[in-house]
Amino acid sequence: MNEMLGLYPQWYVPGIGTAWVMGIIGTIHVLASHTSVGAAWLFALLATKSVHENKPEIMVYLKKYGMFLLVFSYIIGSITGPGIWYSVTVASPRGISGLIHNFVWLWASEWVFFFVEVIGVYAMVYLIGKIDNKTYLKLAWSFAVASWATMILIVPILSFMMWPGNDHWFQTGSTFDAAFNLNYFAHLGVRTAFMFAVAGAVGGIIASTLKDRETRIEITRFLSKMGLAGLVLMSFMFMWYTLTLPDNARLIMDTQMMPRYGKVLLVLLTTTALYFMFTAWKPLQLRQSMAGAMTLAIALFGLWPEERSRESMRKPYVAGQYIYSNQFFSRDVPGKGVKSDMPLIKANGVLATDYFVPADLHTITPENQLRAGSLLTHVMCANCHSLEPNGALRPLPALFGYSKEPKMIKAYLDGALYHGMVPYMPKMPLPEDEREAMAVYIASLPGGSKKPASVAINQTEIEAKGVN
Ligand code: HEC
Fold it and tell me: Is 424 close to ligand 1, i.e. is its CB under 6 Å away?
């Protein structure tokens, strides 16, 4: 039998693309999970304060807040966690397989700590006042440490998706080489700082409902200080983080995200800082709706663009700088026994080497050309581009200026994509007839005719940046 590609069937989501499906689930999950980790620290700190300063009223707050966490963070977190698994497994099967082959034990350890964390939150809520203070504090700190450990163990995987951080890993395939690099520590710093900031905001949702005036003032001020400290730390960590990114990520950040995304982040950071200053100054003015709105703003204008831009900045890869987002292997990874797919598709094309291509499409004929083009475009491009003219994910028709000219489209496939000249797109050395079929299909996609082709503009921008 001929050599075949290790591709899986394609999952296509019209309009928003699979990337957005994962992004939406991921954002909700990050909000829930970071809130719980931050809250675990808040628990430990406030419980210590309550015991040492002999202020049992604080425990009333902790009980209420713990219940709120259980219902929101833990339930939402436990639903969206498996949701991420389901969606990534079908959207990016080779990506997730690559991660599992690197990090299976790390993931297993993370689950152990997560288990401790879940027991911890129940213990925190239900054991208040039922066990002696010393034991309660021990539990509270174990809960905080176990919670943070889940973050310490998951961030290596997220960092590795951006890049292994050094060339060494490609040779050794070692988990430690993959995990603990410069990008990891900066990334962990950003998320740790963020968890304090977000816990400060979420904590206000409950603090604002406290009956006792003094406790309400004290806790709201505590939350404000914690939130502010988180924000300051996060700003520094974020700057460090940007210094630890690979070249392709920095290029995408500079050319496609920076002015706008930077402004959104700056406005959000300033608003959040002002919010915390206000709640520190006038704690009794804090309303539940304000804290809720602040949390929502952090999710919509902080987390969502952050998740999306991390996805964009990894381009053309989904993980490890060797698995392209369209699931092809870009290079050999001797440490993992992975072989580049590029020579095979260059020699035999995709139609004849992908198991899931229907038999009548193995060879292109005038009758099946459009269907073959459609299949190839879904496999090669749809992970990163919507095929609908108004799709949310970099819609392909618009990027080709709604061109109805197969020739012009093919020129792009023949040049930039064939030779891998666009730093944020995979190299696609497909045979002549497959490129032709894709061009015919893309030209057949419906769409308006407003904008001129943006192809030329973007190419000049890349050249101006001196990449490739
Ligand atoms: C790994 C993800 C990825 C894949 C796969 C991918 N692209 Fe792209 N593509 C991008 C990104 C990112 C951009 C930049 C988008 C922007 O400027 O908004 C882009 C931009 C483009 C552009 C605009 C011109 C340019 O050079 O920026 C065209 C045309 C294009 N892609 C065509 C394709 C075609 C055709 C395929 C499939 C054969 C494809 N892309 C596959 C990520 C991808």
Answer: yes
Q: Which phi and psi (to 5°) does residue 134 adopt?
A: -60, -45
Q: Pull the structure tokens for residue 230.
A: 């988180």
Cα–Cα dist 326/17, whole Å: 12
What are the residues whose beta carbons fall under 8 Å from the beta carbon of 458, sequence distance 6 or more?
none
Query: Does the C-beta of 454 come closer than 6 Å to ligand 1?
Result: yes
Q: Could you tell me the pTM of the whole model?
A: 0.85
Domain boundaries, the chain: 17-324, 341-465
Q: How far is CA 135 from CA 52, 59, 467, in A?
A: 14, 15, 59
Q: If one looks up domain 341-465 in CATH, what number appears?
A: 1.10.760
For the Cβ of 92 lying below 6 angstroms from any atom of ligand 1, the answer is no
pLDDT in tens, 158-198: 999 888 877 889 999 998 888 888 789 999 999 999 999 99
Q: How confident is the model at residue 1 (pLDDT cuts 50, 70, 90)?
A: low
Model pLDDT for residues 57-71, shown as the tens digit of each residue = 899 899 999 998 888
Q: In angstroms, rounded to a whole number, what is the distance separating the alpha carbons of residues 196 and 194?
A: 5
> CB atoms < 10 A from the CB of 33, how many?
25
- Which pLDDT belongs to residue 188? 95
Long-range own/partner contacts, residues 280-284 (CB < 8 A, 24 or more apart)? 280/220, 280/221, 280/224, 280/225, 280/228, 283/216, 283/217, 283/220, 283/221, 283/224, 284/213, 284/216, 284/217, 284/220
426 lines ligand 1 (CB under 6 A): yes
**What spacing in Å lies between the alpha carbon of 425 and ligand 1's midpoint?**
6
| Cβ-based burial of 457 (10 A; exposed 0-12, middle 13-18, buried ≥19) | exposed
